Please model this.
Amino acid sequence: MRLSRSEHQLYREQQRLLTINSTGPILTSTLIAGFLCWYLRHGTAPTILFSWLSSFILVAVGRLFLVVLANRAEKTGRHDGQLDLFFLGGIWLAALLWGTASFLLFPHTSPLHQTVFSIIITGISAGAIASLCPNRPAIVGFLTFTLLPLSAKFLMIQEQNGLVLGILVILYWLVCLSGAQKLHKNITENISLRLKIEHQASFDSLTGLPNRRQLLKQLEQELSRASRHKQNGAVLFLDLDNFKTINDALGHKAGDAVLKHVAERLGLNLRKEDIIARMGGDEFVILLPHLDHSIERAAQKSQEIAKKLANTLSASFSIDSREINITPSIGISLFPDQEKAADDILEQADTAMNQAKTAGRNTVRFFLPGMQEAADKRLRLANDLKKAIENDEFSVYFQPQVQADGTIVGAEGLVRWMHPTRGMIMPGEFILAAEESGIIVDIGNCVLRKICQTVKAWEENHLLKEHQTIAVNISAREFSTPDFVDRIVGTLTETGIKPHHLDIELTEGSLISSVRDTIKKIQALRDYGIKFSVDDFGTGYSSLSYLKSLPLHTLKIDRSFVNDIQSVGNGVNLVEIIITMAGNLGLEVVAEGVETAEELNYLAAKGCRVYQGYYFCKPVPTAEFSTMLQSGNVGK
Ligand code: C2E
Ligand code: CA
Ligand code: CA
Model:
């Protein structure tokens, strides 16, 4: 059976009343059961008394346990219907035990004992009405299971007194039922009324969305959750541009219709966990919880969402067969923000929204000026990178990989952005932004094609020896695209190079995302003859056993470990461990960032045979590296 939201709330509230009020009655009835057994100790067999009382205590303990579970569910807000059923079962079981008492413990011989016994059973029933009446099956079941057996017992005595008493108990049962029914109705009406008042105080009557009060309550919860989980979320303050004009020109009814449509469209474009609230007038607030661990990415995501919302709202509305166009101004404030409270965050978003209005409407603005600048810069950089691809501004430098005597065994291709006005820009300045915006995929394609074309030329001029390899850097974002393998194979066939000249460098980050996918992709390209290296090895967290399962060729020891050699002196250096490990896994090692003769000597002593670094040669343009290939040596 599916309940509507208000029916569900009502049911939950009834259930809550039933549970929070039940500890006292459970304990009291257990005491009374104990007293009853003590009182009847002379006329009833001890084994019967003992088994009845222990069953009763067992059921009571079970019910108390359910109360604890129910209280916990109340706190976390995670209710389950099964618990409710068990709870009802516990109540019925207790009632059945009282019912069986009428047969098992009934004192046949002493009228005084019979009177006390009857008072206890009828008293228990009357007492139950108050605590069980929120739930109809609970109270009806309880009264029936306790009282009818008593009445049956009296009727079975087959005396005139018995007959009268039996009928009296039935009448009493009916009176109790009707009293319980009245009380149940009263309580239900009370709860409904309270829920209605609460709803009116927390929700907007026009759109049915949470209002300011409710939003602040939720934002407060999200703030503490965000600090606990080290997550960042955002509050978007959205105000419709020129709404007043619509209201004035078309009347309030049309204005209301627009607001309802806006609420609807916003809802269709958000995640389930996002909250939309109406602040009043034409102001809406959207709460986006847990966007990202990194504040930069959270900023970027919130900006993307704000743009998407602005887009959907700007599609025209048809009200009274009239086309209406609307644009919003949106202010964004990220949270958690130091010790800022919920209303501060809301105010910041409001301020940012006003800045958006001043900036010319239909815009998105961040609260923090630094954040806005960073967002603008990222956007500009992403746009510039797109243009750079179109204008063919990327070129590749090559840094030789050599043996100790300078003999070249290969090279790593490193991208350079030849900016028309700013000159050469190093990858450190743009790779991260390219990865975030996804343009890295296009840049990567472009770099790979250039490298392959160069390799082809070297092959044709017999400059590249069979064993020499040229490495290309592939970022995690490129590697994770579904058509990664196809693109590499496509470029290989298009340029016609020998695959064993190509070496793909992946960072540990690329390798750990999806094991099955990673192995499949690497294996597919290894089957072509392409080699794979782990770049910046030692800086990530890939486990040894995992690396073992991948068909890799080389570990590139990260520069930071190589540069540590001097400072560590004679202490344990990770380089040594990495070299031994690579040997055990059957992998080659390349030491990166070798800058001094000391580093080279140390690495050589530990068994490393291939080096890359300024000590031998900096990255150089293609022509320069071609000359080096001719001599086969970097001339060290
Ligand atoms: P990486 O893959 O670790 O590349 C090695 C970096 O160390 C290069 O910086 C290189 O110039 C520098 N280097 C080499 N020897 C030495 C040395 O002895 N001392 C010092 N201090 N540095 C040395 P570069 O060219 O600026 O590249 C930086 C990073 O940008 C690369 O680090 C790589 O992660 C990324 N990158 C470069 N080209 C590409 C590309 O085409 N695609 C992708 N996805 N990333 C690239
Ligand atoms: Ca690299
Ligand atoms: Ca590296």
Notes: The mean pLDDT is 91. Residues 392-631 form a domain with the TIM Barrel fold (CATH 3.20.20.450). The pocket of calcium ion (ligand 3) is lined by residues 535-536, 556, 592 (CB under 6 Å). The first strand starts at residue 232 and ends at 240.
